[in-house]
Amino acid sequence: MTSLVTVAEEQPQPSVSVSGSADLRLAPDMARVSMTASHRADSVAAAQQVVAETVNSVLKIAQDLGVEKTHINTTSASASPRYRWNEKEERQQLVGYEVSRDITIELLDLAKLGTLLEQAGEAGVSGMSPPVLDASEREAVHRQALKLAFANAQANAEVLAAAAGADLGRAQSITSSGSRPPAVPRMRAAAMEMADASAKSFNAADLTVRAQVSVIFALDY
User: Which example biological process does GO assign this protein (predicted)?
Assistant: First the structure.
């Protein structure tokens, strides 16, 4: 005699997939400033001397403003020949050398940013990028934003569950679209000429920290 045993297949639990987001704002309290000292001369040595003088002036400015050496980077440097086309001889003619050195300063006191930029411009830096702002509490604020983003996703799921005539169950899966906040905005300057800027011409806009999550919730019928 043969016995047949039928095993019912377990049905997957119904679920709903939702997303949530949250934005928080915070005031910046630090900045990263990148600038370049460069000079052209007949020889590499002559160009290096001028660049070194400029870099040393900027280093003294930063140190006088209380910036620690560990927050200053001047290791990137380059030297390249410069040519000019000689129409008479129909060939490139060496006319000198250009030496450049990059300077990056992390300023932890935002109130000194205007002074740093102004004095660095007066010291003879040849290029200066707009400062990039940051905040020491950015990671902590991002974690707060993650909590709010999950709450937003849960609220969206509750609406959908109610519309489907179900009760919202536990979260089965949680995914964050990014572990860090988006890139922070640059400093807004009233004057683009850094060498002529005064300490009062800079206005630090608030930073926006965004968190986004995707969550799958179980549905109970």
Answer: DNA damage response
Distance CA 173, CA 17 (A): 9
Which residues lie closer than 8 Å to 131 by C-beta, 6 or more apart? 31, 32, 33, 107, 113, 117, 186, 187
| 176 vs 110: CA distance, rounded Å | 31
Residue 84's pLDDT band (cuts 50, 70, 90): very high
pTM, rounded to two decimals: 0.71
User: Which CA distances in Å does 52 have to 64, 87, 207?
Assistant: 18, 35, 36
How far apart CA 55 and CA 140 sit, in angstroms, is 36
Phi, psi of 52 (to 5 degrees): -60, -40
pLDDT tens digits for 101-138?
999 999 999 999 999 999 999 999 999 999 999 999 99
